[in-house]
Amino acid sequence: MSFLHDRLSIEKPIIQAGMAGGITTPELVSAIANTGALGTLGAGYMGASQLKEDIHKVKQLTDKPFAVNLFAVNLESYSNEIGNMQRFLNRFRNNLGIDAGADFVKVNDYLQEKIHVILEENIRVVSTAFGVLPASLVERLKENDVLLIGMATNLDEARELEESGYDAVVAQGYEAGGHRGTFDVGKYPNGSNIGLHVLLEEFLDHLEIPVVAAGGIHHKKQVDALLAMGAEAVQIGTRFLIAKEAGTNAAYRRALLKADTNSTKITKVFSGRPARAIRNKFVKEVEGSGLTPLPFPIQNQMTKDIRGAGKEFAIADMQSLWAGQGVGAIQEEETAVEIVESLTGNVNITEA
Amino acid sequence: MSFLHDRLSIEKPIIQAGMAGGITTPELVSAIANTGALGTLGAGYMGASQLKEDIHKVKQLTDKPFAVNLFAVNLESYSNEIGNMQRFLNRFRNNLGIDAGADFVKVNDYLQEKIHVILEENIRVVSTAFGVLPASLVERLKENDVLLIGMATNLDEARELEESGYDAVVAQGYEAGGHRGTFDVGKYPNGSNIGLHVLLEEFLDHLEIPVVAAGGIHHKKQVDALLAMGAEAVQIGTRFLIAKEAGTNAAYRRALLKADTNSTKITKVFSGRPARAIRNKFVKEVEGSGLTPLPFPIQNQMTKDIRGAGKEFAIADMQSLWAGQGVGAIQEEETAVEIVESLTGNVNITEA
Q1: In the predicted model, what is the mean pLDDT of residues A223-234?
Q2: Which of A188, A215, A312, B290 could form a disulfide linkage to A176, CB 3.0–4.6 angstroms apart?
Q3: Region B47-76 average pLDDT
């Protein structure tokens, strides 16, 4: 029936989104894997040794397969033309009592090393965002029987993934929390933002490979409807943010529980790439400054210490509170098992 | 089963959206009514005598019930502080060879007169956008057994409609073409923009009255999925724009057939209210001017002659090319009967 079942014996048509930044703890990923759904280590900004460590921890907690999520772009970058934004951000640093920002920014990339770890550790699924992995890496992964899932925000991107040998495509609707997966942010500065039920239908009509639905999904009725339309699975981010096993900090959790359906917006202030987050003081003030965020990942690196202090000091206003539009329906913390059950009932892929 | 069937003997769970501006010809409305779906005269900017005339024409072509769509706001307005925008718009007028704009704008409102016509003509359904009709009008309509359907873009608006005595709510998703129905554009300057499958689920979870799904719907699989989620009907705009019976002009039709899923955006340049249209030269240049559109309906009145010339001279670049995100899937002109059949197959409400 489903590629997830046939290739990986996954029982539940649920993929946990590969949220980066400490959310996807080994406890979360393994708890989801143990329900029969597909858990994902969000390894976007991670170094290779951290990834290896996390993989080992997950393996201690489950013998089910799980995915590793990567950014399919080269993060390597450097800039010393950051003055105006850095000066503006120093106001926040000053209020937080942390050091002023440097006058240059450097970001390292560990993609090759992480691919090495993934192959060494015999990981069965790699999912990617922001583009298509280089052909040489796609080839290496496929030679090693790794299933490749790519995220797309429009049909051109989806076709590119299909033609590059990806095994499945995630249709990321406008409703989704966190970064827009849009490949070319030059062409779509605010992201390619198509409502999920239009995007899903378009992908189903034009692609040969399986399609996974993502964005704003929080209720079993939505899951049933999307699977009935032809999606092979759904990808869930926001609801797992509030899972008891997730690495989400307390201030962020409170913001998620408080948010309503209109609390989020797509903004570039945190990373330089359009991403959906709960509106807070940081969003309001940086957008209100009239300054243009630096390109990804420069802006991301520049705001990292501020966001880190926001977490440490439990200040939601100084964090990137990624969330999808489904956040309004989330009323309580639950375990990963409870979340998967509430979304699928007792239905397994093979019975669906 | 359905309020449309029980109250009006409507057989198909399809409501044709009340598109204003000459689209909803009596031929279109009656053809849709004769399929067993609910046709709608878009009477937003219409005068009362025009409405009466159109109603008479529809009645000559069908004995089925049909709806009249109104704006639930007072259009009456006047402004003589329009100089910068008017001067900018004069460039377009100059290119089109039409007269320069006046230095003031006046808009008349005919809502009371249209309500009078509606009651006189024994119209069975009134649908509204942009707010809630004044309590006195709601009362008069309900005393006369008129079914009231209001459009909402968030839960607060939907609750306001429900509490005011409306009989059903249309959940207008972010994907929808034309004007955002958002009540308070001071609070939501670009509209309240929630993806349909999130908005529908939220309305179903919190409202007692029936919910109609709208926005980006163009395919039977979507209709089936939305009805299965609990929508009582779906509202369709864009696909009916291209119906052979619609009043859509030839240049607009060509633009609809050419557009893809990413061709539209939400913009205030045509009317001063956020609305989804196909990007064209007018959108690009007015947005690029840095000038803020005047409030609705002043901006609408100011651009009216330009849009009129665009229609007359078959210039798509000078028209408001309203369209939803489903426009990418529209490949050919069809009759209203073909459109309703392709969306519902042979399924009637009572069998659904």
Answers
A1: 97
A2: A215
A3: 97
Residue B116 lies in a domain: yes
Which residues of chain A lie closer than 8 angstroms to B173, CB-CB? 195, 197
**Over residues B44-72, mean pLDDT:** 97
CA proximity to A255, closest of A328, A309, A342, A338: A328
* pLDDT tens per residue, range B158-186: 999 999 999 999 999 999 999 999 999 99
- Whether B18 contacts B42, CB under 8 Å: yes
**B113-147 pLDDT per residue, tens:** 999 999 999 999 999 999 999 999 999 999 999 99
pLDDT at residue A1 greater than cutoff 90: no
- Specify the number of domains making up chain A: 2
One domain, residues A167 and A266 = no
Residues B152 and B65 in one domain: yes
As a whole number of angstroms, the distance between CA A94 and CA A84 comes to 16
Angle, helices B220-229/A196-206, rounded to nearest 10 degrees: 140
Choose between A7 and A299: higher pLDDT.
A299
Q: How big, in percent rounded to 5, are the helix, strand and coil portions of chain B?
A: 40, 15, 40
Contacts of range B203-206, beta carbons closer than 8 Å, 24 or more positions apart: B203/B152, B203/B155, B203/B158, B203/B169, B203/B171, B204/A221, B204/B229, B204/B230, B204/B231, B205/A219, B205/A329, B206/B155, B206/B158, B206/B159
pLDDT in tens, B290-316: 999 999 999 999 999 999 999 999 999
Nearest to A73 by CA among A146, A151, A144, A13: A151
The reply to whether B304 and B217 lie within a common domain is: no
Range of the domain at B225: 3-74+109-245+335-351
Q: Does residue A329 fall inside a structural domain?
A: no
One domain, residues B104 and B200: no
**A60 pLDDT more than 90:** yes
Looking at the structure, do residues B130 and B209 belong to the same domain, yes or no? yes
Interface of A with B (CB under 8 A): 154-155, 173-175, 188, 192, 194-199, 201-202, 204-205, 215-219, 221-222, 224-226, 228-230, 260-262, 324-326, 328-329
Which of A114, A129, A7 minimizes the C-alpha distance to A55? A114
Sign of the dihedral through C-alpha B299, B305, B308, B313: negative
Radius of gyration of chain A (CA): 19
**Closest CA–CA distance from residue A150 to any residue of chain B (Å):** 20
Cβ of B195 within 8 Å of Cβ of A195? The answer is yes
Q: Within this chain, do residues A88 and A227 fall inside the same structural domain, yes or no?
A: no
Contact between A339 and A239 (Cβ < 8 Å): yes
The upper half-sphere exposure of residue A301, i.e. CA atoms within 13 Å in the direction of its Cβ, equals 21
Alpha-carbon distances, residue B119 vs A94, B40, B140, B146, B203 (angstroms): 65, 16, 9, 8, 30
Cis check for the bond before A297: say yes or no (omega within 30 of 0). Answer: yes
Task: State whether A201 and B215 contact (CB < 8 Å).
Answer: no
Predicted confidence (pLDDT) at residue A352 exceeds the cutoff of 60: no
Residue B122 CB neighbour total at 10 angstroms: 12
- Is B166 found in the same domain as B43? yes
Take residue B302 and report the two structure tokens written for it. 């100011």
Residue A10 is predicted with a pLDDT of 94
Q: What radius of gyration do chain B's Cα atoms show?
A: 19
Enumerate long-range contacts of A42-46, CB under 8 Å, 24 or more apart.
Answer: A42/A17, A42/A18, A42/A69, A43/A18, A43/A68, A43/A69, A43/A70, A43/A114, A44/A18, A44/A20, A44/A69, A44/A70, A44/A71, A44/A129, A45/A20, A45/A21, A45/A75, A45/A300, A46/A20, A46/A110, A46/A114
Nearest to B229 among A216, A218, A222 (CB): A222
